[in-house]
Amino acid sequence: MERPIRIRLLLAASALALATSPALAQVKPGEPPITALTQTSGGPIDPERAALRLEHIDLAIEVFPDTQTLQGVATLTLATSAPQRRLLIDLDKNLPVSAISVDGQPLARTSWSNPEGRLTIALPSTLAAGSSAVVRITYGGTPHVAVRAPWDDGIVWAKTPEGKPWIATTAEGYGCDLFWPCLDFPAGEPAKVDLHITVPKGLSAPSNGVLQKIDTLPDGRTTWHWRARSPNPYSVVLNVAPYVEIKGIYKSRFGGTIPLYYWHLPGREAKAQGLFAEFAPTLDFFEANVGPYPWSDEKLGVVETPHLGMEHQTINAYGNNYAKDATGFDWLFQHELAHEWFGNQMSAANWDDYWLHEGYGQYMQPLYGRWREGEARYAVMMEKFRNQIENKAPIVSGRILTEEEVYEEEKGGPGGDIYVKGAWVLHTLRNTIGDKAFWEVTRRLVYGRPDPRPGNFQPRFATTPEYITIVNQVTGKDMTWFFDVYLRQAALPELIETREGDQLKLRWKTPGGKPFPLPVEVQVDDKVETVTMDGGKGSIAIPADAHVVVDPASRILKRSEAVEAAQAHPRQGEQ
Question: For residue 475, how many other CB atoms are within 10 A of its CB?
Fold first, then answer.
């Protein structure tokens, strides 16, 4: 997802998408309020909670558009690596619990409490290390309504142009506990999920994974049963509307076929077919360069939503209103699809490492432009990203952070830089180590191996230190210095140029004087030479009358006074 950048640049697109779907009036955006604990996702984890693993969830939810409420029964199979006298489960207190059983044994009402959004369940007996329990939680109520999804989270109660319910959820920022009892941190990812979503007559409920069946109840309501594996906690999603389904198949480069699905609103068939036509070629780009689509046994699914978008595994949210630009492809669809590799197959173990999601997801757009049209398109797209880099905080802090501490600049996070600066770090890395090594690094990051094939990899967690180790292994060089400057410092390296006689001398100036021996290309008239920068310094002979351009292809992310001046200059209409 692109949270901070979208706020600055794409609010108009979201407003356009929502113009035909005014929100219902019963529950106002931001209501009912949530606690600070519910608003927090990730961060330092209590040892008790860190010891838990969700082996399976069976989640039955009924959606009531007329009253804007949910009722649910969540059956959690929890394993523990440490003894547990109680269970700490995240759940918004706006969804009060009416019953709990453990391994089929009902608990007394005094056995649980949830004053602040962390459901505490006293167990009848100690749950031993290495064992598991089946916990059944009956809950329901009025879920928090998003103020401005997807930049904040909750449920969106909207209407189609024909006045039918159009409902969606987003949870990346505030977490899965807005809708279901979960472990609201990255490692809380459930291994298997069964979803049973019941909706009013005439409505559909596309969701994660593979559709098992649709049951029609006597009054016309339908229950949609989906089965998925290893979704991120925030990826478990509700989508409800009178959708029209488009489907097809993609013949994978790795053998077999992959089901393609798009659920869109009625009356938008022509535009929907245009977007659906992008599915196969975009998927082919990723398979050709990154590797196999990780969810080929499930589907590539997209659903039209009353908010801009989100990377919900195998059912990505799309609300870009079929906008067109000069690239010739829909950036939102392409970006969210990138997260099937960078976010869903490979998940960051800590929000502090989410540049691995967003930097890679962002960089895939200009790389796709390059794949389609060549270097000119790539350069134009990269320049747009370059002008947005703000350098207010390091991309990586080295601490365990919450989602908001990363995505929100107001909380000291890098915000939009995990996207655009992350993309430029990867651009500089690719130009430094070469395409072959870059794509091998990428495959090892995503799949944990250089030779992925369907069936020989599983979803995995990754960290920034592991990524640096992968780069060092693939290149055979210690490139820690590269990431120490680009990821762990806010300020960019500055290239100092001086002329002494017929010599052009170059010197890297870095925060704290950190080592930075990054080679630099220099064009002298019509010849390009590479200057080695041992010790962060280098020189090249320059004839007195020569025309000189340093870094002529803009392969390096470095300080630019021109960009800083442009960013500081008030835009037209601003004071």
Answer: 18
Tell me, letter by letter, the H, E, C secondary structure of 526-548. CEEEEECCHHHEEEEECCCCCCE
Local structure of 85: helix, strand or coil: strand
Sheet order of strands, 222-229 included: 105-106, 97-102, 132-141, 69-80, 52-64, 192-199, 222-229, 210-216
Residue 325 binned pLDDT confidence (cut-offs 50, 70, 90): very high
What CATH code is assigned to 21-244?
2.60.40.1730
Type of residue found at 116: E
The residue assigned the tokens 């949530």 is 34
pLDDT tens for each residue of 508-564: 999 999 999 999 999 999 999 999 999 999 999 999 899 999 999 999 999 999 999
The third-level CATH classification (topology) of the domain covering 494-556 is: Immunoglobulin-like (2.60.40)
Tokens of 23: 């929100």
Instruction: Determine the distance from the C-alpha atom of residue 494 to the mean position of all C-alpha atoms in its chain, rounded to a whole number.
Output: 31
- Please, which pLDDT band fits residue 1 given cuts at 50, 70 and 90? low
User: By three-state DSSP, how is residue 159 classified?
Assistant: strand
Query: Helix 279-289 crosses helix 331-338 at what angle (to 10 degrees)?
Result: 40
| Residue 460 tokens, joined | 């995995």
Q: How far apart are CA 304 and CA 337, in angstroms?
A: 14
Q: Domain boundaries in the chain?
A: 21-244, 494-556
Tens of pLDDT, residues 340-380: 999 999 999 999 999 999 999 999 999 999 999 999 999 99
Q: From the CB of residue 110, how many other CB atoms can be counted at a distance below 10 Å?
A: 7
Task: For residue 175, give Cα distances in angstroms to 117, 191, 224, 418.
Answer: 11, 17, 23, 20
Residues 431-475 pLDDT 10s: 999 999 999 999 999 999 999 999 999 999 999 999 999 999 999
Angle at 414 (CA atoms; ends 411, 419), nearest 5 degrees: 135
Distance, first Cα to last Cα, the chain: 31
- Same fold across 21-244 and 494-556: yes
Report residue 574 as tokens: 């601003």
Output the six-digit token pair for 474: 């693939």
pLDDT surpassing 50 at residue 16: no
The average confidence (pLDDT) of the chain is: 94
Task: Report CA-CA distances (Å) from 90 to 76, 176, 435.
Answer: 12, 8, 43
Q: Is the pTM of this model over 0.90?
A: yes
Task: For residue 236, report the phi and psi dihedrals to the nearest 5 degrees.
Answer: -70, 125
| Cα–Cα distance measured from residue 212 to residue 224, given in angstroms and rounded to the nearest whole number | 8
Of the chain, the percentage scoring pLDDT greater than 90 comes to 94
Burial 334-353 (b: 16+ CB within 10 A, else e): bbbbbbbbbbbbbbbbbbbb
Gap between the Cα atoms of 251 and 480, Å rounded: 40
